[in-house]
Design brief:
GO molecular function, one term: DNA-binding transcription factor activity
Number of helices: 10
Order of helices and strands: HHHHEEHHEEEHHHEEEH
GO biological process, one term: negative regulation of DNA-templated transcription
Shape: elongated
Keywords: DNA-binding, Transcription, Transcription regulation
Pfam family, one: IclR_C
Protein name: Transcriptional repressor IclR
Radius of gyration: 24 Å
Number of domains: 2
CATH topology of the largest domain: Beta-Lactamase
Length: 272
């Protein structure tokens, strides 16, 4: 006889609902931890007031978490903070949450929604390195196999990543790299590129309008990690006769939303 397989790590023959299976004290501990994580340090009375709990109850939770290094108290100010163990536990999630793994569903969704090839790229030594692709089945399509290198100033993903640079980073980039021309549309003027970065930030997506290859367009948006750093870009690329000018804004919003979804899945804050 086949044995029942426990689902989602539950005990065999478990049939209780979620409200009956939670541990109240553990739930309260997470309330305390989430409250501390949103602040820059809080006293016992501040935490108790924020959670509408008695100081004695909150102190027992804090003492338990402190013993495991999940929170720590600052002796001078008596303020409580998230501790090193919480960071270590969170890092286990970050190790698991590979941007490549997390981007695959979004890339497939973009390809299916737009009918065009979706790509994932990262910055390497001032260029874009393409690391993954979900291809359309159309006979004429963009093709950037993993390992392909492209200059940042003439790439949708590259411009999406550049748009997150601050003024000093942009200045350093422009000093290091010549803006090579590939087509009549390639941006080769520093001031023009800086202005393009401003427009990209404002709309939330970058647009490569036949700037690397005549007849091909690309729309891209940056993927942001938990520290607000752009670590990759996701894009949709295709020929101009299918990615016409009146399609760009719609595709841009789809790509921007896909990038935001991946960003949140690896720990970034939700867009304001």
């Amino acid at each position: 006889m086949a044995r029942d397989t426990p689902r989602k790590g539950r005990p065999r023959n478990f049939s209780g609902d979620a409200s009956q299976s939670t541990i109240q004290s553990l739930d309260r501990a997470f309330d305390v931890l989430e409250t501390l994580a949103a602040a820059k340090g809080m006293t016992l009375s501040e935490i108790a007031r924020a959670l509408d709990q008695s100081p004695a109850t909150v102190y027992r939770v804090l003492s338990t978490l402190e013993a495991r290094g999940v929170v720590e108290a600052e002796a001078e100010t008596q303020a409580w903070h998230v501790g090193a163990t919480a960071f270590r536990l969170g890092s286990a999630f970050l190790r698991r949450s590979s941007v490549l793994e997390r981007s695959q569903p979004a890339m497939r969704g973009l390809m299916e929604t737009t009918g065009e090839t979706s790509n994932l790229g990262i910055e390497r030594n001032g260029d874009v390195l393409f690391v993954a692709q979900v291809e359309t089945q159309e006979s004429i399509r963009a093709f950037f196999p993993p390992g392909t290198i492209s200059p940042m100033h003439a790439s949708g993903i590259g411009k999406a990543l550049l748009s997150r640079y601050d003024a000093d980073q942009i200045t350093a980039f422009l000093k290091r790299r010549a803006l090579e021309r590939f087509t009549d549309n390639t941006i080769v003027n520093s001031d023009a590129l800086i202005e393009e970065m401003r427009r990209t930030r404002d709309r939330g997506y970058a647009f490569d309008d036949e700037e690397k290859a005549t007849g091909m367009r690309c729309v891209a948006a940056p993927i942001i990690n938990a520290w607000g750093t752009a670590i990759a870009g996701i894009s949709v690329s295709g020929p101009t006769h299918r990615m016409s000018s009146d399609q760009i804004e719609r595709i841009g919003h789809l790509v921007r939303d896909a990038a935001a979804s991946v960003s949140q899945s690896i720990g970034a804050a939700a867009p304001a």
